[in-house]
Amino acid sequence: MIKTMYYLNTLDTGTALFAAILIGIAFGFFLERAGFSSSRKLSGVFYFKDMAVIKVMFTAVITAAIGLSCLISFGFISLDNIYLMPTVYGAHIVGGLIFGIGFAMGGWCPGTAAAGVACGKIDAIIFLLGTVIGSVIFNELFAFIKPLYQAGQSGVVLVYDSLKMSRNGFVLLLTLIAIIMFWLCEWLEKKRQLPIVSNNSVVLKIMSVLLLALSLGLNFTSSKTAAAQLSDTSSSEAQLLESIDKAQDHIEPEELAQRIIQGQDIIVVDVRPADEYNKFHIRNAMNIPLEALHQELDSFKNKSMIILYSNGMTHPAQARDSLYRSGFTNVYLLTDGLNGFIDRCLKPISLRNEPLSEDMDLKVDNWRSYFLASETMPKSATPQASTSQEPLVDANWLEKNLGKPSIKIIDLRSQPEYNTGHIPGSLALSVENLRTDINGIGSMLQPADMLARHMSLMGIASDDAVIFIYGDRVHDATLAGMALERLGHKNYAILNGGFAIWKASNKLLTTDLPTVIASKYQAANYTDEFTADSQTVLKYVQNKKAVIIDVRPADYYNGTKSDEARAGHVPGAINRPFSEDIVKTNDIQQFKSVEQLQTAYAQIIPTKETKVIVHCRTGHQASQTFFVLVRLLGYTNVLWYDAGWSEWAAKQELPIKK
């Protein structure tokens, strides 16, 4: 099976570099042999004086099309292994026009210009220099032309899908077009007595017949393959029935209990309704509705053991059959369902009819301790909520504590809004002042030493309680909270409802600016272990041992909208938009109740100690989800991917899914 370097995530390795050098050498060699190191020859096609470019380009296109289709049809490669450029109509139309005009005027394209430079052509050097300058100008003007750059984003669009044709049928059509163009070029060259790439009509006839035979053969093969797949389906049905008959598709409750306790790589799925799941479920089990199984389990297809259970076995068996027909061969049923698991693994020894062996007695005790104990809160690298300050405060509490030296109030609205009226004693701060560019990624939270200087300038001491006041964006307050988390400063809270709740409560406002005495902020002896990088996220994408939550709006998650070069989401990530944690009443935005949030997140995170990674585009919105999980709900193993989708989309070697 051929695996491309994109599929294997090895684009940044020495092997990929070596392969690129070899391919580049071969590419340059054949460009030169084709005469494409001459701008006169290249531009001749625009004046119908030299048809070599058309012949070579159509030869390349049809060779690639037939070759790739052969590899796909015979199962050597999958389209999933290949990076396909998304279609952006606005950018492609304008870019194509610029490219065409530049090609006609300059006589070069970037690849042939490189070959020209290697041959010492002055015009090629000037052309490439212009390309570099144009790239710099594009980068500097990107903020202004970004709407055009993103206009008409349509994801990956395949021509044969748009034409409602099969892939091999489209290859046949493309082959016919190529053959017509070859003969048209031949006729034009003879008629106008142009330089001829090959004046041997016999060769052209043989090549035409060969190309046509190959493309027709592909279509015949695809028909045979479809029939074979139908036969395979019948065979797989027989295999399924055989496995059911021999109970090979079952896993016994005792075996499941041992596998879970030993931490084996298994996926346990509870297909019951959410209310039943919330009352009791097998520890570490995911709750996925029957109708969502195919979508949610796609990333686990044939990679880990998937165990389905309900109270009994009817619904899991139906789901198993459906998944099996979709190609899942790693799905098993829990024998006798949850009822059997409780009866055989969790039933007290004193209530059993039959005596157990000493070894089984010990196992039952272990199982009961593990599966029936209240969820523990082990020590974690994730910062824990401080006991000295509740994570949310209300307007009445804040009013009673105004003026206390140990309480610092930070207003995160814009400076003009702050100037028109603010809570007495509050200081203005823009969260953007807490962010910077790190390793080429913008809007990253600053390092601890820089954040400590901000705290010093605002007169905040390491033992102060800090209260954040947000305007129209709750996540401004949670991002500011992340700055304190990075400093190991746990004593902070958010005014639930922000400035709007204070104003609606007719509390005191002022335009007076407070006096600030700079402090010497001493950051705690604390290491930020809650911020994840792309490699950490990739590790959990591959080992499937974390719940990854993409908090961006659904259209960004689905890839229908994007602010980056690539659209989609991290493979295996679950979409829960950050906005779903907020309720808005009369322009007052507040967090939903803890009970509502607990119920919602219990649907997607098995336990409080499950590894969780939250991300958005730049960490801003994800900071709100982090706050909800860690500060409000007590989840103990949460990571925050600050660089988020802006970094993930920019790194071509990282996988995406739509």
UniProtKB/TrEMBL annotation:
Domain Rhodanese: 262-350, 403-511, 542-657
Pfam family, one: Sulf_transp
Transmembrane regions: 6-31, 52-77, 89-110, 122-145, 165-185, 197-218
InterPro entries given in the database record: Rhodanese-like_dom (IPR001763), Rhodanese-like_dom_sf (IPR036873), Sulf_transp_TsuA/YedE (IPR007272), Thiosulfate_sulfurtransferase (IPR051126)
Lipid metabolism keyword on record: no
Name of this chain's protein: Rhodanese domain repeat protein
Keyword annotations: Membrane, Repeat, Transmembrane, Transmembrane helix
Organism: Candidatus Uhrbacteria bacterium GW2011_GWF2_41_16
Highest taxon above the source species: Bacteria
Gene3D superfamilies (alphabetical): Rhodanese-like domain
